[in-house]
Structures are given as structure tokens and as C-alpha cells.
């Protein structure tokens, strides 16, 4: 169940493992995503009897986004096995100030920040306290590219951005949205993620290094993600210092699913930025490359509350392959929807497994781009070193042929160049 079909590749892989899958897509504009590839239904509530027929050990309901937590809580009370989050988890992600308060309550050192509902008040605040800030909108409806990380030391660019956003957001009826101004913190951006089964975290946790901006060298607009480096190794110390501290709160909040904490790490310590209380993308696809038992095995590990699960040592690199105008929706139908997707004829089935499909559909026997934004697929590579994983991922990406296909060519480079050394010197790896 989701607003779009962000985890479509997960559903295809569950089907390949022999599971029956039905998908409910809430946004009408997204109905074409995975068209001809998965069975789509109009209302997940009408499918509950079908889930019950699978028995207590055979049915799973999965929610993609952090906006249906109350429904998940109700389904769990009715005896269903539900993975995705909870009402409390929704608030943890969508209300940034609340998330920061919870992190502070468990003893983490948080970045100074202030929530506003009025742009003029935020502008006055910066003028009284000039420095660099990060602007982040609350809620699950807002796009990542609307957020902004200030560059000017006196905050003048942030003031100019707020003045412009004030007019633009009023035009699209989200001017009442609350937003957070957070002090800018320099360091190594590092994510810590793990699966939570309702009682405890499964072992191991993962560490990840996201590349959010569109162009190589971290230039351009914030996209959500253009690619990520992930590993299940060397994560234990960071996990214990961060995410593990939320165990009691997640248990009390009825949470079941994947959770990720994004941080900045520097000489002053670990600074938590935000929580993602759902499966992230492309994160879920890159983790899949390191999980030999697949999504069926992972869901069973969560259902039966196994202490640990099998994983592949080393690193996985994931590269987002997209078409224009990603990360924007505007003009996508005219520019890129319906483009043919062709794979190198010499790709083996094993190699094809490294491609994780996104906004695609099967039309007249041909795979084409679909959806609303141009997020076409993710190419993944695995290796004992970052260089090996990167080499495999990009070798695969080059064998995908789509008109105007675009992707970053430097995923993992910043970690190799400086991030790993700095984290090791600080004692976190």
C-alpha cells in the first residue's frame, strides 16, 4: 500500500520467490508505475480477507510511506502482520522538531534548530543571528528539492530564498506548512539504518553514505538521492551510539519496519539530522543486493523476530538511473514518459539482478518508462571494497539503454577520498 509504487522492485522480487502480491497505489497519476508487471487493486481494505486466507504465518501487509500509521496500528490490533511504520513513526519523520526532541530525550546531542510557520519571523531570526542554516519543510508531501542548505556565512542567501519561497508556497497552497531552520554543521554525512521487529532491532545494522545532489561533486539541486554507498560491516559502534538508543521508544510506539537516522559526524561528535521511518529508496534496493535471502527471507525474519539475518560482507553501491526532468514532475509526460528501455543483449540473468526497476511499465511486450518523475531504475554493484562495488555498478549502468538516460558517476568517491579516513580517525568505524 502506498501513495505511489516506490517499492515496486521489491514486489517483483517477492513474486520471483513464489509469493502472491497485490499492490494498491493511491495516487491516480502513479497508476502506470509497474503496469503490466504487478497485480494492482483499488482498495487494500477489500483485500484483507485474501490476506487472512494465507493464515497467521503467510500474510503480510506492507506500507510504503510515513502517512498511514494509524491504519497500520489498527490492522495490527486486528491481528495482521504489518510492516512499514506506525502513527508514532509517522510523527517522528514528518514533525522534525518532535523527532529532534525524541533524539535529545534518549541522550543524543542535537543540532540547534527552530520551527517556524511564518517566513517573516524566520527572516527576522536570521538577521538577529546571522550564520549558515539548513531550511527543511515538514511533512511527507513536500519535495526534497524545496529544502535548501545555505551557503553564505551571514545567512543572506537563506533570507533571499525564504522571501522567494514565501510567494511560491502561497501559490501552491502549502504556505501554512511548518518548516525548520537548523544550524549548519560541517562533517561526514552518515546514515545508520536497521530493521525493527516491534520488540528490538535485527542484527546487523547498516551504514550508508547518500549522494543527494544531482551533479557529481555534490553540485545542483537536492534530489532525495542520486545514489548511495551501503555496508553491513563496521556499523556496530555507530548503531549503539545512535539508533539503538531508540529501542524503547520504537517498541512503545508500535513500530515495525525499517528505520534510518541521518547524521553529521565531526570532531565534536555525532549530530542527528532526521529520521526516515519507512523503507527509503534507492536504499531498499541497495540493501537487497546485500541480503541473500531476499525480501521473503527478510519479512520472515521480522515476523519470527529472529535476532539476526544473513548478509553479504563488503560494500554495495547503488546508482539512480533517471530521465528528464527528474527530480521534477513538470513536463515529464511530454518529455520522457513511454521511452523504450533496452538492456544489453549479453547481460545474464545474474547480472540483470543488479538492476532494480523503478518507474517502469510493460506495454505491448516492451519495457518503457512510466510514473511521474523519471526515476527509472537503480544499478547496484557489490564488492569487498568500495572500488569493486562501484566498478560493478557502473559497468551495469552502461549496459542500460534509454534515450537521455542520466546518472552521477562519482557515487562512493567522497567516502574513499576522505570520509572513511576521518571516521576511522574519530573512532567510529
Describe this structure in words.
By secondary structure, the protein is an alpha+beta fold. The protein has three domains: 8-92, no CATH class; 112-183, Dna Ligase, domain 1; 188-425, 2-Layer Sandwich (D-amino Acid Aminotransferase, Chain A, domain 1), CATH 3.30.470. The chain has 15 helices and 20 strands. The strands form six sheets. It has an eight-stranded antiparallel beta sheet, sandwiched between helices. The chain has a four-stranded antiparallel beta sheet with strand order 5-8-6-7, covered by helices on one side. Strands 1-2 form a two-stranded parallel ribbon. β10 and β11 form a beta hairpin. α4 (87-94) packs across α5 (96-105) and α6 runs antiparallel to α7. Residues 171-176 have low confidence and may be disordered.
Amino acid at each position: 500500500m502506498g501513495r505511489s509504487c516506490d517499492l515496486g522492485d521489491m514486489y517483483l522480487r517477492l513474486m520471483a520467490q513464489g509469493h502472491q502480491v497485490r499492490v494498491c497505489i493511491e495516487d491516480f497519476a502513479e497508476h502506470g508505475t509497474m503496469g503490466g508487471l504487478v497485480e494492482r487493486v483499488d482498495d487494500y481494505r477489500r483485500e484483507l480477507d485474501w490476506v487472512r486466507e494465507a493464515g497467521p504465518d503467510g500474510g503480510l501487509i506492507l506500507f510504503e510511506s510515513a502517512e498511514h500509521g494509524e491504519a497500520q496500528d489498527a490492522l495490527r490490533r486486528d491481528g495482521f502482520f504489518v510492516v512499514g511504520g506506525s502513527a508514532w513513526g509517522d510523527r517522528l519523520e514528518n514533525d522534525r522538531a518532535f523527532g529532534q526532541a525524541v533524539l535529545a530525550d534518549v541522550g543524543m546531542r542535537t543540532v540547534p534548530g527552530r520551527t517556524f510557520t511564518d517566513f517573516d519571523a524566520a527572516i527576522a531570526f536570521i538577521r538577529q543571528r546571522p550564520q549558515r542554516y539548513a531550511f527543511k519543510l515538514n511533512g511527507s508531501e513536500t519535495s526534497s528539492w524545496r529544502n535548501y542548505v545555505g551557503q553564505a556565512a551571514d545567512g543572506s542567501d537563506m533570507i533571499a530564498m525564504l522571501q522567494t519561497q514565501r510567494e511560491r508556497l502561497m501559490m501552491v497552497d502549502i504556505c501554512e506548512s511548518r518548516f525548520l531552520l537548523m544550524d549548519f554543521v560541517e562533517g561526514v554525512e552518515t546514515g545508520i539504518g536497521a530493521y525493527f521487529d516491534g520488540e528490538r532491532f535485527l542484527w546487523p545494522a547498516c551504514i550508508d553514505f547518500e549522494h543527494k545532489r544531482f551533479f557529481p561533486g555534490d553540485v545542483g539541486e537536492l534530489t532525495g538521492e542520486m545514489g548511495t554507498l551501503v555496508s553491513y560491516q563496521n556499523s556496530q559502534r555507530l548503531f549503539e551510539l545512535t539508533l539503538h538508543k531508540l529501542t524503547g521508544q520504537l517498541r512503545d510506539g508500535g513500530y515495525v519496519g525499517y528505520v534510518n537516522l541521518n547524521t553529521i559526524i565531526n570532531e565534536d561528535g555525532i549530530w542527528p539530522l532526521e529520521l526516515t521511518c519507512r523503507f527509503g529508496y534507492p536504499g531498499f534496493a541497495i540493501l537487497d543486493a546485500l541480503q541473500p535471502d531476499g525480501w521473503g527471507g527478510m519479512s520472515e525474519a521480522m515476523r519470527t523476530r529472529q535476532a539476526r539475518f544473513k548478509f553479504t560482507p563488503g560494500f554495495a553501491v547503488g546508482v539512480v538511473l533517471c530521465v528528464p526532468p527528474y527530480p521534477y514532475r513538470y513536463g515529464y509526460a511530454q518529455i520522457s514518459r513511454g521511452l523504450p528501455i533496452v538492456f544489453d543483449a549479453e547481460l545474464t540473468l545474474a547480472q540483470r539482478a543488479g538492476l532494480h526497476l523503478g518507474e517502469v511499465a510493460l506495454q505491448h511486450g516492451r519495457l518503457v518508462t512510466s510514473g511521474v518523475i523519471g526515476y527509472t531504475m537503480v544499478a547496484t554493484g557489490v564488492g569487498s571494497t568500495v572500488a569493486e562495488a562501484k566498478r560493478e555498478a557502473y559497468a551495469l549502468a552502461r549496459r542500460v539503454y534509454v534515450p537521455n538516460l542520466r546518472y552521477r558517476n562519482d557515487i562512493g568517491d567522497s567516502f574513499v577520498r576522505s570520509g572513511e579516513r576521518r571516521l576511522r580517525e574519530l573512532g567510529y568505524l
